[in-house]
Amino acid sequence: INIILLGPPGAGKGTQARKLVEDRGMVQLSTGDMLREARSSGTEMGKRVAEVMDRGQLVTDEIVIGLIREKLAEGGKGFIFDGFPRTLAQADALGALLDETGMTLDRVIEMQVDDEALVRRITGRFTCGNCGEVYHDETKPTAKEGVCDVCGSTDLKRRADDNEESLKTRLLEYYKKTSPLIGYYYAKGKLASIDGLAAMEDVAAQIDKALSEA
Ligand code: AP5
Ligand code: ZN
């Protein structure tokens, strides 16, 4: 099955996507990760998007649709679209890409979290630069300070756009451009809304339930 994880910055999309990869062997397609990879590899496109991302604005539809098109062309099955689509134009493009390749979209999981919690989650987040594990100062610290639980790396870092100023812009972008997708997928009968404020395991259980009904 192919699913979309939809929700504001800090809703827990990346955290749950990693769990689905582990538990079900699904393939995570995070446009945020792809864009961060592009910027760290120093390509022309990477340089162009870096500034936009750090400000918290959305990168152009053309660029992210191109990235997803490349990944889908590589094949595979059981995709988790994480942080994509983020605009109605991207949603239409995804629909067309899936049609072309004969794939279906089975479920869109909307993760609901209030703004206050989002600020706490984003400002406390850090990730492992080696394996990508996501941590939080309060809710998910490493067992040993400064060392990744999963891979033992000491390359733990915080994202340039995880500050209150950029987060304000990211939230505005979400409400203006991405939240209309909730109605869009509801109308298509694909939407399942879950409580993203619950503990991580509870959120995972809600997602499992939504997928069993897909
Ligand atoms: P992207 O990388 O997609 O970031 P985002 O949407 O802002 O989402 P985040 O990664 O910040 O949050 P998340 O929901 O994955 O939460 P996480 O699991 O980490 O995008 C970054 C930028 O790239 C965009 O601003 C834009 O510029 C560009 N971009 C990307 N895609 C694009 C697109 N399609 N179109 C245009 N531009 C695009 O969790 C957050 C924290 O909370 C963690 O510390 C975690 O440990 C903790 N946490 C998670 N779940 C729980 C829980 N249940 N209880 C307590 N704590 C929890
Ligand atoms: Zn690690």
TrEMBL record:
A Pfam match is ADK
Q: Kindly state one GO CC term assigned in the UniProt record.
A: cytoplasm
In which broad location class does this protein mainly occur, judging by the first location in its UniProt entry?
A: cytoplasm
Write down the superkingdom of origin: Bacteria
- Tell me which EC number(s) this protein carries: 2.7.4.3
Q: Where is this region: NMP?
A: 30-59
Tell me the pathway: Purine metabolism; AMP biosynthesis via salvage pathway; AMP from ADP: step 1/1
Show the GO MF annotations.
AMP kinase activity; ATP binding; zinc ion binding
- Database matches in InterPro entries: Adenyl_kin_sub, Adenylat/UMP-CMP_kin, Adenylat_kinase_CS, Adenylate_kinase_lid-dom, P-loop_NTPase
Q: The Adenylate kinase active site lid domain covers which part of the protein?
A: 125-161
GO BP terms in the entry: AMP salvage
Compartments annotated for it: namely: Cytoplasm
Which parts of the sequence bind Zn(2+)?
Answer: C128, C131, C148, C151
Residues given in the record as AMP binding sites: T31, R36, Q57, L58, V59, G83, F84, P85, R86, Q90, R159, R170
Coiled-coil stretches: none
Q: What PANTHER family does the annotation carry?
A: NUCLEOTIDE KINASE (PTHR23359)
Fetch the HAMAP family from UniProt: Adenylate_kinase_Adk
The protein's job, in short, is: Catalyzes the reversible transfer of the terminal phosphate group between ATP and AMP. Plays an important role in cellular energy homeostasis and in adenine nucleotide metabolism.
The domain comment in this protein's record states: Consists of three domains, a large central CORE domain and two small peripheral domains, NMPbind and LID, which undergo movements during catalysis. The LID domain closes over the site of phosphoryl transfer upon ATP binding. Assembling and dissambling the active center during each catalytic cycle provides an effective means to prevent ATP hydrolysis. Some bacteria have evolved a zinc-coordinating structure that stabilizes the LID domain.
| Similarity field | Belongs to the adenylate kinase family.
Q: What is this protein called?
A: Adenylate kinase
- Gene name of the encoded protein: adk
